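Lecture 7, part B: from sequences to assemblies.

Below are the input chains for today's worked example.
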Amino acid sequence: MAPEQTTAVLEAEGLTKHFPVRGAGRDVLRRGAAVHAVDDVALSLHRGRVTALVGESGSGKSTVARLLAQLQTRTGGAVRLHGKDVTVHGGRRFRAYCRSVQLIFQDPFASLNPVHTVRYHLTRALRVHGHAGRTARELEEALTDLLGRVRLTPAEQYLAKFPHELSGGQRQRVAIARALAARPEVLLADEPVSMLDVSIRLGVLNLLRDLKEQLSLAVLYITHDIASARYFADETLVMYAGRLVEGGESETVTQSPAHPYTRLLIDSAPDPERIGSAQRAELDEDDLGEPPSLVTPPAGCRFHPRCPHAMERCTTELPPRFEVSGKQWAACWLYDNGSPAPAGES
Amino acid sequence: MARLRRPKFLRNGKATAGALILLFFFILAVIGSWIAPYSPDATGPDAVVGPSGAHWFGTDQLGRDIYSQLLVGTRGVIVVGFAAGVIATVLSLVIGIASGYLPGRGGEALSVISNVFLVLPALPLLIIITSATPKDGGWIVILTIGLTSWAWNARLLRAQTLSLRRRDYVEAARATGESTWRIIAFEILPNLTAIIASGFVGTVVFTILSEITLAFVGINVSEWNWGTVLYWAQSQDALAQNAWWWFVPAGMAIALLGTGLALLNFGIDEFVNPRLRSGGRARVRTRAGRRLRMRVGFTPVLATVEEGEAR
Ligand SMILES: Nc1ncnc2c1ncn2[C@@H]1O[C@H](COP(=O)(O)OP(=O)(O)OP(=O)(O)O)[C@@H](O)[C@H]1O
Ligand code: SF4
Ligand SMILES: [Mg+2]
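Predicted structure of the full complex, as structure tokens:
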């Protein structure tokens, strides 16, 4: 299914985040130095579809998620919910926004407050968004329903538990249930399984996929494991040093990668067929060399210091998106024979 | 939380012992002046006489009953200590958490204020103020210590708040749509219990010692407290007269109260910090030397125990 066929729930265009650098350091001598964490990212999320955002550590994936969740204010660009540009900082309007867009954190050992029970976490999320019902019984039903959705049954067994009494997988399920309590349209999952034991990752991913189907959620799946992107996502975007470098249908991007960086990624992943080997398939920075400084990112194509195909113009000119096939684009001068794909489409 | 914690808390031996000692002094503070056999100011014929059936802890140079002086003096010690502790704790809470959670200028300004108060010398200030105000020393001591000794705890609370607000669960609460005050009161505050409680106990100890010191150096001796007894013992050369009963019971009372507060503090620390609490039983050491904690769910998972993680 091509993205053009459905309207996007959540879109980003030209999304940019620069963190001002403070404190000691050589780069700081220049005024206005900043970490270019995210630059000119465009993506769109559609109901019932999973979009994967793949990149190595520090490439800006979590920052994209935080910007989309409006937990951080963006430096530039637009975030559009149902086609309307939204900027919220907090208060009532933020509540309304996060009712539609919910975020799941990477580390389930850190994202639940150690002093509160499962019941507290879920009740609060229901209350905040007005889904707790009017009576104690309605609340109990809503809680049971939530835990049932994430397959923590019987619910009574989990409601009174503190986070430290649960396993990593169970905690992540509670975190997912908390996100579902808002009845969102968009779920931003920031490496939802990377902190979990390999043996239970698949279970959590399958749960997310089922929820996506049942609730017709738009899911942004952030990962540094390109093998799981192929397994789980309809569309895959590859991010390098704060910029999107390639995107398209997951199958195409993972099976015939166009961008030299994506190729390197896939070569470093031993077996994309087997999700069970996900741990080995994670990006190994040693194989790929040092990622560039985000304070003074390389001019032109940010990948050129590490690219085996780097050309003269790569060091000076920023490559726009080029269409590789109908299902795939790459921001790389190697594909400069077709016409540039219009930006903002993915 | 409180529902589950109170019984567990009392299972901690140190905390229980500390709480019992405190309870003992609280009771004395309430009933001390009723059960005192004499008025602490009532002079008698027997001056500087050792313990006897009539005077359990002996008498001073005017024949006053030292046992009664200690009993009556307990109230002043406890009231002043805890009142100043409450004032300092409330101030440190408000200023510490606000300066840690508020972004930008406001937080910085509060931090500067607490740094100024941090270098205010409380005891010399106290001596100056109390010697300048002749009557009603108790309130002056409470206010001076309460208003000057919050800064250290405020700094600790600010540092901890700064670290807590970066935690995922605080960010997750924000992403859920919780309001700022709710995040402070329900997500951050419960995780500061240990610092708040030990700060409170520390201030109480400091206040009590300051009050006793003041009385001992002869300021504010119009009201009876343990320091007043020591002041008279010192000024009448009790040691040279071998009148040990004059200062030993007062010293013991101070030491016992201090021990009780310290035990309570240890108990709180152990209780709130689960790493001290579990005593290492739930942890295993792998052959590689990494420390792991076993967690059993429907899928057994080994999770690394991280430094500084309160869970
Ligand atoms: N609040 C912040 N202040 C300053 N710099 C930040 C901040 N948050 C992130 N960064 C920087 O932005 C860059 C991107 O960080 P981000 O967390 O988005 O990466 P990531 O792709 O999620 O990495 P990982 O896979 O390790 O989670 C990093 O260089 C990081 O140091
Ligand atoms: S634009 Fe140039 S440097 Fe960048 S990936 Fe393509 S070939 Fe390599
Ligand atoms: Mg991240």
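Note for the exam: Confidence is low (pLDDT under 50) at residues 274-286, 339-346 of chain A. Keep this in mind when comparing with the next example.
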